[in-house]
Amino acid sequence: MSFSMPRDPGRTPRLPLSRRRGRVLLPTLAILAALALAFAVFTAYYTELLWFRSVDASGVYNRRLGTSIVLFVVFGALMSGAVLLNAVLAHRARPSYVATSQEQQSLDRYRMGIEPYRRPLVVGLSVLLGLLAGGAAAGEWKTFMLWRYGGSFGTSDPQFGMDVSFFTFDLPWYRFLLGFGFALTFISLLVSVAVLYLYGAIRLQGVGDRTTTGARVHVSVLLGVFVLLKAVAYFLDRYSLEIRDARVGRAELTGMTYTDINALLPAKTILAWVAVICAVLCFANIARRTWVLPGLGVGTLVIAAVLIGGLVPALFQQFRVKPSEADREAAQIERNIAQTRQAYQLEDVDRTPFNATAGAQVPQDSPTVENARLIDPLVVSDTFTAREQDKAWYEFASPLDVDRYDIDGEQVETVVAVREIDTSKLDAGQRNWTNERTVYTHGYGFVAAPSDTPTTNGEPAFLRSGALQIDEPRVYFGEKSPTYSIVGAPEGSAPYEVDNPEDDRSRNTYAGGGGVSIGSFLNRSMYALKYRDTNLLLSNRVNSESRILYDRQPRHRVEKVAPWLTVDGNPYPAIVNGKIMWILDGYTTSNSYPYSTRTELGSATADILNATEATVVARQSDQRVNYIRNSVKATVDAYTGEVNLYAWDEDDPILKAWRSAFPGTVQDRDALGEVEGLLDHIRYPEDLFKVQRELYSRYHVDDPRTFFSSTDFWRIPQDPTRNVDNEVQPPYYLTLQTGDMPDEAFSLTTTFVPIGRRDNLTAFMTVNSDPNSDEYGKIRVLAVPSTSGQINGPQLAQNALTSNQQIAERITLLQGRGGSSRVEYGNLLTLPVGSGDNAGFVYVEPVYVRASTGTTYPLLQIVLASDGTRNVYASTLDDALAQLERLRQGSGGATPPTTTPPTEETPAPGATTPPPTTGGGGTTLEEALLDAQEAYQAGQEALQRGDFTAYGQAQQRLKDALDRATAASNRRGASGGAADGGAATPSASPTAAASPAAAPTPGSTAAPR
Fold first, then answer.
1. What's the whole-number mean pLDDT along residues 566-581?
2. Are residues 962 and 834 in the same domain?
């Protein structure tokens, strides 16, 4: 017999322990997850705020964040409120009784399952949709602020006569509001129909009326709002036609076409009124309570859209425009040309004909030739590192930069770089947190070399410390700086940062005031969490005076301080008032300038300089723009990290809007001139010039019919000196005087060749880059008329040089036995020379040699030169130009001097080489070449040992041997062969070559002869 205790009716049965724990555990985990998320958000906000405070830009951060939050809350609340309201109204419109049917029996199961959770589900859905909508709206903070603070452009669009500001500032915001309205109405309609159907207010089966009165009213109102928004969309579409992409003939452009103006624009107006009428029909259903009117309205709108908006313009295009499209579209193309030139500052280009001829005289006293750049910034970075590195953990960026400095009272174009820290170069035993974060914290020093005068052994002629005055050489903020470093220590404590690379015992403590203080436990904790690094809390190297330096790349710092700017991809260092400053260019852009053709920044700014991740030149993002201005010049102090923005184009309407939105962020242009020495190092920005040259390759065409056929378009040539497919030649900073330039000027240059497969030169483009000149920003184009005959473009010039037999033999000799050395071609410069009947182009190209093994760096060995007919090489540019002139005179019947430097000229067709001859010196050509090979090999072995004295001696022996080889070659030419130094008849074609096997292509390694 068993007994059981009677249950106390007053006691509540206790749940099992496991179930009680489960009910407590889930809310606890949810609370902990929410706290962790909140703490992570607070950490991100707090550390960002500290960074902005460190650069005196907390106002930028707070205003941007505040605007995003306001947009998030407002539009998120609108979406959540609309969804919740419509769900509640739809639920209230449910019938009190629903006739039984198979459909309703199926829905009953869903209703019974949902009903206990109906309110949480509806609220949760509305909150989720509100978060998504708010997030999308927060991302439109730029659009909102331009609408809020935008002013007038002072110029009108060609079609409607409205100020351009409507298209650039107002229309994008109106389009966003319209899109949000469509999304809100459509989602509300979906939610309402779902609720109405679930609760029987809308039935698909059964007899009698299948919708309730409340359901008809509700759906009719939402349909009416949607159609009314469609009417607004048609109205705005009329203006959007001016900023939409179109194809006219073979040309792609932006703006209205003939069909748009005469068929589609009236169609949009008609459809807008039709949509208004249809919306009225939908709203009228509130009183009529029948589906006839809404159905009639929506059906009419759809039919009208197909017929009026689609079919009529298509027929108009086919039968009215196509038969004479070039004539019909001429006026629209003229608009596009004018507006595009205005938007990209191409309306005042000085285009002049340049009647160049191949083989024209090259005046050696021309500033253009005298300043030809032989030190290629893309090649000699390793040379800078090898000769000026001092310690293994320092590095120079690639490519180097080009600037100009006053040396002994004369402006000298220089290749410049800063010596930056690279902790990845530390020995394995040195790679630890203390060294990488607190000891090796900064670079040291600024290195410069004239761009046109290498030393006798082929190295850059580095300027010594006395030539450039630097008061603070330390570089804590640079292009290759570590992710973060901990610097600073209490006064009187021992310095512990490695400093001057010339002194192994040199130590330093940062005192620049940059970065963020992490002396407090709170700040340490925040950054330990940010970088997931407990050493920030545990290391004794972090003290009360410590500061953390991060976000140190100059371009990134400017982008954060001015998030509305597009920053040039190539910051460059300069010595300004004794300090190392990074100088950057900032652009204001728009994608809504009427009738201006769009371009993709990423593709327009792509060239050989940013073709790989090994270079520090950044390629722009793939954003599309059709208006750009270099509105801001920015500086970043390499020691303190201080960021300063200066208005450069103070008349730019977009800059004015941003200065109103973020007052005090951008200083006046006059403030830039008050910084001693800064203006001297301002230059025309590269990315802007790249965009302009890409547009001008098409928009140099004035005649709309020629533009329509695209027959006279140009293109930027590919870089012929690098083995990188589809990467165009970069623009080059050169000091030159050409065309109608009153004086020589530091300029940015580029070349053009015809579109298609032809590679002859069609134009040479320059822009004045001297800010002290009244002509700064002046673009000049030297257009080569078709009557000038074929003038070699860069690719043809490179082919002519490398396929020349004597040049090919010299290149093979430089490569050594078994390919012991590698030849690297430097920048191929296109230089316009002469004027009038004696105008022409000369190509200049430095050739470097690098040993294939050991510690190697490139050294300039020879200079190639071509005037389009003759191709020569020599050890110096002056010698090469002298040879061109001697050969030019020789081809005209003049007797060439016997003491000229060696010539490498394409032999006359059919010429043969006589047997070795011995000159007065008793040395045959073959013996001299053998001596040269031995001297070169000795030099390479000295390089691998690091014995630069022996290397210099070997280079001198090499030069002597080559001089003897030249003399022997000249004697051989005088005895009847078309050899070096003789008056050989120049090749009739600039691309005439010897055996292809002897013509190494750029970057290739030819077998030794």
1. 96
2. yes
Peptide bond connecting 399 to the previous residue in cis, omega within 30 degrees of 0: yes
Same domain, 287 and 178: no
Q: Is the bond preceding 490 in cis, omega lying within 30 degrees of 0?
A: no
Closest of 98, 281, 312, 309 to residue 197, by C-alpha: 98
Q: Cα(448)–Cα(64) distance, rounded to whole angstroms? A: 40
Please give the structure tokens belonging to residue 629: 């201005």
Same domain, residue pair 175 and 245: no
Per-residue b or e along 462-481, where b marks 16 or more CB atoms closer than 10 Å to that residue's CB: bbeeeebeeeebbbbbbbbb
Confidence label for 172 from pLDDT (cuts 50, 70 and 90): very high
What is the predicted pLDDT for the residue at 802? 92
pLDDT band with cut points at 50, 70 and 90 for residue 801: very high
Q: Would 808 be classed as within a structural domain?
A: yes
Chain mean pLDDT for the chain: 85
The four Cα atoms 731, 732, 733, 736 give a dihedral, to 10 degrees, of: -110
328, 355, 389 - which closes a domain: 328
- Comparing 683-697, 780-794, 808-822, which segment has the lowest mean pLDDT? 808-822
Cβ 600 vs Cβ 620: under 8 Å:
no
Answer yes or no: is 978 within a domain.
Answer: yes
Q: Which of 492, 498, 548, 480 is nearest to 520 (CA)?
A: 548
How far apart CA 451 and CA 793 sit, in angstroms, is 23
Structural domain including 918 reads 792-998
Residue 17 buriedness (CB in 10 A; 0-12 / 13-18 / 19+):
exposed
**By the 8 A CB rule, do 699 and 346 touch?**
yes
Determine, yes or no, domain membership for 162.
yes
Regarding whether 248 and 176 lie in a shared domain, the answer is: no
End position of a domain, from candidates 328, 363, 383: 328
Please give the model's pTM, rounded to 2 decimal places: 0.85
Q: Do 191 and 234 belong together in one domain?
A: no
Q: Looking at 486-490, 626-630, 931-935, which range is the least confident one?
A: 931-935
Q: Looking at residue 101, what is its pLDDT?
A: 62
Residues 6 or more apart in contact with residue 767 via CB below 8 angstroms: 684, 689, 692, 747, 748, 777, 778, 779, 780
Dmax (CA) for the chain in angstroms is 140
C-alpha to C-alpha distance for 116 and 858, rounded to whole angstroms: 78
Number of domains in the chain: 4
Output the pLDDT for position 996: 29
Domain check: are 839 and 982 in the same one? yes
pLDDT over 90 at 687, yes or no = yes
**In a 3-state reduction of DSSP, which class is residue 969?**
helix
Cα–Cα distance, 680 to 688 (Å, whole number): 20
Structure confidence by residue, pLDDT tens digits, 864-884? 999 999 999 999 999 999 999
pLDDT score for 195: 87
Using an 8 Å Cβ cutoff, are 211 and 203 in contact?
yes
Residues 800 and 929 in one domain: yes
Do 883 and 847 belong to one domain?
yes
Greater model confidence, 852 or 15: 852
pLDDT at 820: 81
Residue 1004 domain-assigned?
no
- Could you give the CA distance from residue 499 to residue 509 in angstroms, rounded to a whole number? 9
Spacing of C-alpha 230 from chain mean position: 38
- Phi, psi at 248, each rounded to 5°: -125, 115
